[in-house]
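User: I'm writing a tutorial on reading structure tokens. Could you give me a worked example: one chain, its sequence, then its tokens, then a sentence or two explaining what the tokens reveal?
Assistant: Sure. Here is the example chain.
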Amino acid sequence: MQSDTELKSMTAQGRLHAAADASLRAAVARFRTPSLPRAIWQLISTFAGFLAVCAAMYASFGVSYWLTLGLAVIGAGFTVRLFIIQHDCGHSSFFGSRRANVALGRLCGLITLTPFANWRRQHAGHHAVWNNLDRRDSGADIYSTCLTVSEYLALSPRRRFLYRLSRHPVITGLMLPPLVFLLLYRIPFDTPKDWRGERLSVHATNAGIAIIVVGLGLALGFERVLLVQLPIMVIASIIGVWLFAVQHRFEETLWQRDAEWSFGTASLQGSSYLRLPRILQWFTGNIGFHHIHHLNPRIPNYRLQACHAAIRELHAVTSLSLWDALRAPFFALWDEKRQQMVGFSAATIART
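And here are its predicted structure tokens:
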């Protein structure tokens, strides 16, 4: 048993951590005010870029489909950037007006194939429980949850094989993302029946997408529309899912039990700072400053970098290079003894 002195020391440390968290969150909150000129410029440049690339893809279709596929990579980059804008709208941070955020979020959803209201509410669940070992089944998806090593080893051989297969990077990183955006988002299969507005958003988004596809198909040909738009969405979904997954499931992240979990600690140690080349940072809408986003989701993406530069305490977090991020999907289990994410091979060694 712990002595009274130890308990008092732990309580005092908890108070110090809470005070530090409150001070840091207050400093970060200075950057949450949206900027209408910056928001409009980001919106215009992103939509214009996306439409220009799509037009170039349709124009190149009859010349060389390899050129069309090459342009699809750029189109996917603009789609990811549109998703980040939609993500900001989901947090009511892109504009100062809630109505404007909702309207823009719905519009972006027609391009990203994401039902805005449904995704927004489910994503709020992620912000409530990320990297909390005792709340992994509450608002967590396959990309922001994991088993511990002991839990994995306690499974039967057959279930271990199935779990390992389902978490293989080829499946989670390449095969599943397009399936999620193209098919699963078309059905409110995991949406509670009492979420009526969110379920309606799924059907409304589907109707809007159908109108766009039919219109483009009648004007340009359905085969051409499929061969232009599908590669964009496949590539964008893979990049987007990877971005959100690696920033919580990297080797040096921190998972904690509910009694130990705190908002500030989870933000700074359970989220990363992903350092990307400037052009990739632009296309990904500064989402690499993920630790700041979790500290205050109301900070617009276009103010995250300034916030990071201004507050020195935000630099003392795990920083991932592009290479680190590419390795991250191979860390699939949380090792409570080592206090780090490990791969399946490490779990096998621990078992022996």
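What the tokens reveal: Residues 5-16 have pLDDT under 50 and may be disordered. The chain is about 65% helix and 5% strand.
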